[in-house]
Amino acid sequence: MALHLKWFTFNPFSENTYILYADNKDCIIIDPGCADSSEEQLLRSFIQEKKLNPIRLILTHAHIDHILGVSFVHQQYQLKPELHQDDLELYNTAGNIARMYGISYKQGPQPAGFLLPSSELLLENQKLEIIHAPGHSPGSVCFYQKDNQFLIGGDVLFYESVGRTDLPGGSFETLANSIKTKLYALPESTRVFSGHGSSTTIGYEKVNNPFVKV
């Protein structure tokens, strides 16, 4: 039983939005960053073409570039976001950040619930482990799928880089510890799909990442 992953690069921050879907057509929308009508149409068209059924909206964290499309997804599919509770303040004050950047933003609904560390998401009986990996933001989480050997990592770990830690609630020491103890503990073959840029693997980053090496 396979899971399939589609990603789009949206908004001025070049953020990666993911749709994770199963053979039964159920799908999870992750970090909708669509910032205008053309990007919204791309997301909607893919879901229509694949005849997908969106069942959950989940966030790796609540920085503005990852939540610009939350209101659209809620309006289109009647889904409310789920995120880690430690990022709720970021989510609720995102309008201030949008104004600072001069970005159009409509506040989304209050969360449907909170993602609990060490719990699991289910998609057609396939499990995704929720890994709390703070440092980039207090409530940053990653989603690990053991059978298919991939991690949807948000802005924790990038190809030869890591998430910035100079934003409110950020801490490089905390981030480095999250990467070393939680992400680098995963199999080296695990493919990492990040919130920006290209994918990478745990094994590659353990050797080549200039910020956090083993």
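Second entry:
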Amino acid sequence: MSKRGIRTFAQVMLLVLVTGCGSSSPTRTLTPPIDTFLPLTSEPSMSTATASTTSTFTAQTECVGTIPESTKDLVRSYVDQGLNVGIVVGIVTPCGTEIYAYGETELSGGQPVDENTIFEIGSTGKPFTAILLADMVERNEVSFDDPIEQFLPNNVTVPTRGERSITLIDLATHTSGLPNIPDNFAPADMNNPYADYTVEQMYEALEQFNLKRTIGIQYEYSNFGMGLLGHILSLRSGMSYEELMVTRIANELGMPDTRITLTPEMKSRLATGYRDGEPFPLWDIPTLAGAGALRSTVRDMLTFLAANMGLMESRLYEAMQLTHEPRYPVDASMEVGLAWHIRTLNHAQVVEHHGATGGYWSFAGFIKDKKTGVVVLTNTFHDIDEIGLGLLRESTMQP
């Protein structure tokens, strides 16, 4: 294996999908829950990106000025310094939306990024899985406390601890005791690490894992657990994870660009991902799709946040509210709901998640009391949480 291959394996393959929360301060310091998918080194610079190749796009309704100049300056600085190739920021409030975009879909020969540019969103897709669970509970198709073994094939052995079984809500709150990634995870292609991980391997990992702590008492971020939850909901519904998500969330809310499988037209709007200054391929996540296989646009994600905050009517509203309820502590400053992480920012409750794949980073968060939601997407593996949290922090200071 080459040195670059080893570095890719260590920094990317085990990094993926990233944990669900960023810094609580305007600095670059990242203080998430313990997660072995975090980068092992500082983020790389991208000296090949230059200001001369960037373009700016701004779209808005009557909410002109909702995104302050300080946020736009920060976005421009990230791109102009070569940290990110393109960034799109969106904000939704009761008066409508405003979107600001800067940079390109590719370093050479790309198009300006805009509200319709498609990005991988990684773990920012986990709340979709949680909402699917809550919706199935609302429909009386499952219960939060159902043991997961009742949905899996009879020949699959699920680990237990004492007399306690892992339940659906344990998976959704990262309290199942399952590891971040399965112990038998050994990808053939380190640039597309989840592509060859099979359902049979997932079942094998379940059967062989020995739970080290009591179920349902301690938060431990688990992509394995959330991917397993998506698989179970797929089995229960009789649909693939993508079909279930599209049928019950994307189509319900009017989100035509939130998918796993991209049409040719969608591919024409896809931003190329970058890491270490080089293009990085999309990740295929067939078995653990519920942990972060989705691709989306800022426009679709603003619709998603608007529905979560009740700014638009939706059959999913009650299910969404169930996912926002704090259920377990993450640390002294944060709690977890169903997938979502909840923190206090200037005395306001912020509900958020972020995510990353090999060449992308995403952030989505909202303040329910302020009815303000923020989305930030970039086609570079470089942390942009500061942009999203800073914009939410700014909104807490508005009357």
